[in-house]
UniProtKB/TrEMBL annotation, chains A, B:
<dbReference type="GO" id="GO:0016054">
    <property type="term" value="P:organic acid catabolic process"/>
</dbReference>
<dbReference type="GO" id="GO:0016491">
    <property type="term" value="F:oxidoreductase activity"/>
</dbReference>
<dbReference type="InterPro" id="IPR002204">
    <property type="entry name" value="3-OH-isobutyrate_DH-rel_CS"/>
</dbReference>
<keyword id="KW-0520">NAD</keyword>
<dbReference type="InterPro" id="IPR029154">
    <property type="entry name" value="HIBADH-like_NADP-bd"/>
</dbReference>
<feature type="domain" description="6-phosphogluconate dehydrogenase NADP-binding">
    <location>
        <begin position="9"/>
        <end position="168"/>
    </location>
</feature>
<feature type="active site">
    <location>
        <position position="177"/>
    </location>
</feature>
<dbReference type="InterPro" id="IPR008927">
    <property type="entry name" value="6-PGluconate_DH-like_C_sf"/>
</dbReference>
<comment type="similarity">
    <text>Belongs to the HIBADH-related family.</text>
</comment>
<dbReference type="GO" id="GO:0050661">
    <property type="term" value="F:NADP binding"/>
</dbReference>
<keyword id="KW-0560">Oxidoreductase</keyword>
<feature type="domain" description="3-hydroxyisobutyrate dehydrogenase-like NAD-binding">
    <location>
        <begin position="171"/>
        <end position="291"/>
    </location>
</feature>
<dbReference type="InterPro" id="IPR015815">
    <property type="entry name" value="HIBADH-related"/>
</dbReference>
<dbReference type="InterPro" id="IPR006115">
    <property type="entry name" value="6PGDH_NADP-bd"/>
</dbReference>
<dbReference type="Pfam" id="PF03446">
    <property type="entry name" value="NAD_binding_2"/>
</dbReference>
<dbReference type="InterPro" id="IPR036291">
    <property type="entry name" value="NAD(P)-bd_dom_sf"/>
</dbReference>
<dbReference type="GO" id="GO:0051287">
    <property type="term" value="F:NAD binding"/>
</dbReference>
Amino acid sequence: MSMATEKKTVGFIGLGIMGLSMAGHILDGGHDLVVFNRTKSKADDLLAKGATWAASPGEVAAVSDIVITIVGYPKDVEEVYLGNGGIVECARPGTILIDMTTSSPELATRIARLAEARGLAALDAPVSGGDVGAKAGNLAIMVGGDEKAYRAAMPIFDLMGGKIVNMGPAGAGQHTKMANQIAIASTMLAVGESLSYAAAAGLDQTALIEVIGTGAAGSFLLNGLGPKMVSGDYAPGFFVHHFVKDLNIALAEAARMRLDLPGLGLAKSLYDKLVADGFGEEGTQALYRLYTQLAEA
Amino acid sequence: MSMATEKKTVGFIGLGIMGLSMAGHILDGGHDLVVFNRTKSKADDLLAKGATWAASPGEVAAVSDIVITIVGYPKDVEEVYLGNGGIVECARPGTILIDMTTSSPELATRIARLAEARGLAALDAPVSGGDVGAKAGNLAIMVGGDEKAYRAAMPIFDLMGGKIVNMGPAGAGQHTKMANQIAIASTMLAVGESLSYAAAAGLDQTALIEVIGTGAAGSFLLNGLGPKMVSGDYAPGFFVHHFVKDLNIALAEAARMRLDLPGLGLAKSLYDKLVADGFGEEGTQALYRLYTQLAEA
């Protein structure tokens, strides 16, 4: 029997908009799925399709071959893994633990060390691709941790992801995600400022995106979020307050590595202002609101 | 006889690396070419192929149906157009003047006004695509100015460019190029900071570019200049000091429009430092030197 068809018991903790789609793919892949979520009602559809409910992260871990988590903040990750009755305490030796939350690289290495001491293997495996990628099962998955555990988890990763890469030891997945968010941060400034300048200069912003979007100034964000800025569509694809969480982690890691990233710092200060102004529940393209304010001031 | 095959006398002023290729395409297109350049020897190949030398910008203008300029700085543009014995003074009524230098939108509108008063039409038509695009004849050409003159010049633009757009009245071409450079400015920070973080975190930078380059963090610059940063290849595609010229124009225009663009300001301060450190003759990807210095400090 190949790895790809071996039936596992997979525990899944965190049934937000991403987690729900990802857990559904695992169930559809023929595995036994055991779930826990703070709000139980979110699990209803999965339970109706055959998943099993467990009363706590520890109870999920105790019965699973592989435990996947995708929760909110690093403090949530720390609690479900390292808290009393948590995953590391309750998992059976040999279990593979996979945190897919975007979280702190430092925490990821700490969990991996404590897990290893109990005969477990922990991978950090944050994703990109958003709710669309989660639903389509083609997320990019950036993995850090033990190569053997990575290979063993691959059939499960394959159900959720398209591009799946082991970027190095524990923490490397989170570091990769941070490098991704750092690139996004200043590129958002690039898009907002270019469109803001265009508006002030009286240019047709849509024509501008078309002209510059395929050349050296082009980016996924200019072509994808630029038109939303132009039309004032600030509906969330990726929430401002989630992005601020990520930027906080990135800045803390950069500071720990004594790395000065002024573009990241600037982006963080602008997104903080956006949250302070009451726009944390909008999409990251709402950064453009600040440039509109500046122009009107 | 269609516009595309009507033979014109085209004047061309400014035979730098871009201008030489562009003028060559016009000659190859069957038009009469009259050239002037500060350093005459740069014209040797064109003269050998049949172009005619003129002793000054004014002498070029006096015999041409269309005059094209692509010189260094706004002060050079001002001199060749508005100086004594310059283009606006010497061109015959009906002549179309096209400045393809990346220059000041304010200057472009001033030239257009003065040209119109003398029965001339002036277009601002800066390009993107670099020496590669100039050689291949597929530059993006961003045009501002009178629609009728734009249409009349189209057969000549077609010889040099691929994507050619009239973005609005005089100055709109330069404004479009500025919006392009503003988008590039902060995206360069994005690429430099992401790769700098990756190096500090011990990630394989080439693998990083591959993983994040096709997702939301992806950009033409990450995929094109990122690998050069990684390998320390700072050979110029686009010179730092030319980029600083453009950023200065963009900042001056933004200030004139009372527009606060903090990402642009930050990029300008970093590129100024790069010039002060002696790297003005390198390519714009040399920005990465600053992050290496910061990491080593």
